[in-house]
Amino acid sequence: MTSQNSGNRKSRLPEAPATRPAESLKQDILRHVLYSLGRDTERPDRQTVFRALALSLRDRLVEKWIASQRDIYSRSSKRVYYLSLEFLPGPFLRENLIALGLENEAREALTDMGFGLDDVADEEYEPGLGNGGLGRLASCYLDSMATLRLPAYGYGIHYAYGIFYQLIKEGRQVERADNWLRGGTHWEFERSHYVHPVRFYGQVREWVDEQGRLRHSLENATTVMAMACDMFIPGHKNDYVLNMRLWAAKTSREFEFSFFNTGDYIGAVEEKIRDENISMVLYPNDEAPEGKELRLKQQFFLVSATIQDIVRRFRKKGIAWDQLPRKNVIHLNETHPAVAIPELMRILVDEELLTWEEAWYICVRTFAYTNHTVLPEALEVWPEDLFRRLLPRHLQIIHEINRRFLHDVRRQFPNDPNILGRVSLVHEGESRWVRMSHLAIVGSFSVNGVSAHHSEILKESVFHDFYKIFPERFNNKTNGITPRRWLRQCNPTLAWLITEHIGPEWLTDLAQLKKLEPYVNSEGFHRAWMEVRLRNKHKLAEYIRDKNGITVMPESLFDVHVKRFHEYKRQLLNVLHVIALYNRIRSSPGSVTVPRTYIFGGKAAPGYYMAKHIIRLINSVAYTINTDPRVGDLLKVVFLQNYCVTLAERIIPATDLSEQISTAGMEASGTGNMKFALNGAITIGTHDGANIEIMEHVGNENLFLFGLLSHEVNEMRSQGYNPRLFYERDSELREVLDMIAGGFFSPSEPHLFRDVVESLLNHGDRYMVLADFRSYVYRQQDAANAFMDQAAWARMSMLNTSRMGFFSSDRAVDEYAKDIWGVSGV
Ligand code: C3B
User: Fold this and answer.
1) 570 counts as catalytic
2) What value of ipTM does the predicted structure carry?
């Protein structure tokens, strides 16, 4: 090493306090490269630079977080606790830079060091701590809570492995473990001194204390420790930072030295591993719980640690327990954390010695519950036996809640004895099940759905009995998305074009997008709008070429269907139409005039046979079409593997047509639909979830709705839906189904996709794919015709963006804050 080199190195280390923000950021990065990461500042690689930049931002975030916490504390504000088994934050770097107002500074600092910000940002591997819509919504809401300066906390689980990494191999989904922590944790603080004990199993002991009170305690329980890991969520340029506290399971056994002293060293280590399994992996099921013991353990683990944290904070105030609901609200994101209700009861009754009535008064004023699905298989139930084994005291408490509740219902509805069985918290049949949604409704002061349509369905059918019992509890909060990530960050050039015309206020007041409307008739704006969109499509085309080796035409209509794979989301309906188009191209060349690129993406639950099979079908159809020389550029089909937040950010800004085609009545809301429309894509969709409200806002003439309405779906079903009739009547549909069943797309395994066709023709077509096929084909034709008139299309695109203001998560969270939580910004 020459002295000159070491002199150089020295000169790049922090010296005098820097003055310019870019310079000070650069000094911080270099300091972290050396002192936190132990690397040479002379030649750090990109990953090292990314991590050092992340650490430098964490420094700034933690300072603001401490200040924000002091603010909340000093004002003694009411706090919101948002409990969710899933969060899907996506990559943090750009989001944090934008929120902190440090994007240009970071660019400058990195350029100075010989790196590009985009390349460095690409080094980030996102934490996939959620499955799909529900987890992503939780992250959008934290972003908005921070931007609105709400005294809020997100609580979840620090899974060591998030949602699996999806590979497509020979057309099939293959799952790989998602070791998101392998690169280290640069955004979070692990609070190893900060742990709560969580107790499972054991037996309930009943005893009478000196005051003659009947007491309950748990004996011989197994204890696992929950360790806090905090990640920071900054508001948009407002110096306010919230934390998302994720619990990691740690064994308590290393504290039990006696265990080692007995000589069973390996045994002790095995137990340790078993304990720490609790937070090992996220269950990869979307809307169909697996019902495994470990999952219920995870739910209780989150709940118990969180309630202890809440109670600890409340105790510090030294005020009476009946003030708890005035100072706190606990929001249950779906029923997954609903065991929080009996857990709070247990603490108040068993530990704080409140009477049942006092404790219940507090509980039903503290909890609020959001329902996200009406699919019967997604409504969580637990076998009573399992509950009794794992959480014996909690089951007793649930029984007591139920006894008192049914007593009241009997008095309210003396002439309807059947209602008791329908609303009971415990389903009694051959086997007994605890119904978590009933527990959540009975124990909460607010129950909301996530779109106007969905909330009506809850009141009218799924929870109709409860609506009669507690009409005042039911309300709607239509979902929203954060414009910071889903426009500003993922589509910076479009965001810039917008800001150039209407200023930057839309970032925190999305209704301002309305101001774009006068420009829809300006030719210059038109051109700029379409240029930005085309550039985005070019970038996606490059990505597709790199990843899939397929060349697609950026000028073609990008028709995109990305979301979890589920039969109700009807990716199958889309493929049937793709095949119909393919047949038209083959049988009458010239009949298809608009070249299309179909883009699919999404994961299927590993145990969901039909969803995985549909993925395979799409890939087989893609292969057949992409290699058929008769098709040329008219039709391309692409499946992009491992759909995740990072990939969504690439795809959405490049989409022309957004597929939102669930069976009416089945998609609670959807939020992908909002992200696409906000970025100027046109929706083709059913009258379902938030599609209906999107139509009301953007105008029926600016999107393509089709298909049965949800009441028509129900009527058709109750009248005995016969999918075969549609098959027999529609020759184009018949040809498509016969090709699939006959092995056209799987010549080496002709029977491969027979099950798919069987599910439609012989097993009742539960999702009404065939009933909606024809109207879908017509609507697709309308979309293609509209696309031919690029000026008219551009107008539609701009109007979609300008009228999406309502769908900001800021609006949604503000409604939660005012109508449910009773909190305001600090
Ligand atoms: C989803 C629903 O399927 C979507 O319609 C909805 O937009 C989002 O939640 C957010 O509200 N959902 C999910 O992702 N996972 C579940 N278990 C239930 C609903």
Assistant:
1) no
2) 0.99
